[in-house]
Amino acid sequence: MTTVEEVLGRPDQGVDRRAKRVAVHTFRPRRSWPAVITGLVILVVAVVAAAEVISALAGSPLRLIPVGAATGYAGATTWSAPSVQIASAVLALIGLALIVAALTPGHGHWTALRTDDPALVVGLTRPALRRAVAAAAHEVSGVDSVNVAVRGNRLRVHVRTGMREAAGLPAEVTAAVERRLEELAPLRSMRIATHVRYAEV
Questions:
Q1: pLDDT of residue 56
Q2: Residue 121 region by backbone torsions, left for phi larger than 0, else alpha for psi between -120 and 50, else beta
Q3: Least packed by Cβ within 10 Å: which of 5, 60, 180, 187?
């Protein structure tokens, strides 16, 4: 089978790096739920605050927020009070958790493939990658069934065989999977773990 590299040829290193950056950015999982929740909370707080200010300026405050009680408490409480320190620590932890959630990539559903062209981005879904790897493993002589699991950049290939003993079968399956990955040319290198279940004696 012809690989992507054989079709397109060896690119310039600068172009290759730019193509990798574009592919990584395109298929980088987005943390949409934390952003949506944070945006909704900020929107609700802003709407309530605006309603309080506008109603107070109009002469009939809504009093959705107990501003008077909060003002009295803030005037009588020092920064060294345990309640203030605890509230500050909680808010700092919430902010830190939001930063970590924003910086940590989510679970992607696509595997970016190398194209060596910044204008061309190609990706393979996880089910399609599993099928391609399973088909390659199934071509090995002696393999009866294959189950593939993809987690990040790790591939777990579980093989069933009717043979009771085949010392070289795991290596043959791993080699077949590696050849298929070379043809697909994923952007990130993938680690392969092959497990063979033999026929019971």
A1: 77
A2: beta
A3: 60
Q: Is 174 exposed, middle or buried (0-12, 13-18, 19+ CB in 10 A)?
A: middle
What does DSSP assign to residue 188?
S
- pLDDT for 5-37, tens place per residue? 554 455 555 555 665 665 566 666 666 677 778
Compute the radius of gyration of the chain from its Cα atoms: 28
Structure tokens at 127: 């089910």
DSSP 102-169: HHS----SEEEE--S-TT--EEEEHHHHHHHHHHHHHTSTTEEEEEEEEETTEEEEEEEES-S--TTH
Q: Determine the residue type at 2.
A: T
pLDDT in tens, 115-154: 776 667 777 888 899 999 999 999 998 889 999 998 878 8
Q: 32-57 vs 82-103: helix axis angle to the nearest 10?
A: 130
Q: Position 107: which residue type?
A: H
CA angle, 25 then 31 then 33, to 5° = 150
- pTM score, whole prediction: 0.56
Read off the amino acid at residue 67: V
